[in-house]
């Protein structure tokens, strides 16, 4: 009996240790509560395990970042249009919020590049429907950097809101993108600074999401034969209540004009 008890204790301890290594998906979460979060410090090895949480075409690397512990790293080789599919998470509610910290290196932008964060991505039956924020920067004076909210409907990707925002390379930013029905909003600020009370940009899409099991997804793109390195940390998903405020801060006059140009 003593040996059986010792073995049982060892099995339980092993299970606890394994559970601590990986993020746990709760069966459900109340509106407004965090459903899933991951700072990537609990993983062993140098690649992310898919497990029950993440899906991806190629496992992202796990690297040590100064002052942060482990973070995800995505490297895009130089090409006319270098793309990384990133990763996706299966959600369970229609109104959701994706939060994360992100940084890209000084050589990542080329003429244009950035992060594409889908708060809603449904590819059922081969069709693609999505609501997403494109967080883009540029080394070209002719391309405006900023945060653009877009939808993908029947092979078109209309932008329905834009806010100018200058992303500095080698700087960590905190990002949130959320939706309540077809009202979408995004918030960006320098990581470590106080979170703004209001969203950076918000807008209403013609497309109305209907699938509560649609994915949440993150991808990366860089143009003009530039290699790129993106790092991601402190990822979380929450479900939003119907009465969540999606109001954005009023843009300056010049930024309002640029927003109209980018939505056309």
Keywords:
8-stranded antiparallel sheet, 7-stranded antiparallel sheet, 15 strands, 264 residues, globular, mainly beta
SSE diagram, text form:
Elements: H1 2-21, E1 34-38, E2 54-55, E3 61-65, E4 69-76, E5 81-90, E6 96-104, E7 113-122, E8 129-137, E9 146-152, E10 159-164, E11 173-180, E12 183-190, E13 201-204, E14 215-223, E15 228-239, H2 253-263
Antiparallel strand pairs: 1-15, 2-5, 3-4, 4-15, 5-14, 6-11, 6-15, 7-8, 7-14, 8-9, 9-10, 11-12, 12-13
Anisotropy-based shape: globular
| Percent of residues in helices | 10-25%
| Count of extended strands | 15
Please tell me how large the radius of gyration is.
Answer: 20 Å
> SSE order, as H and E?
HEEEEEEEEEEEEEEEH
Structural class: mainly beta
Tell me the β content. 35-45%
Number of helices: 2
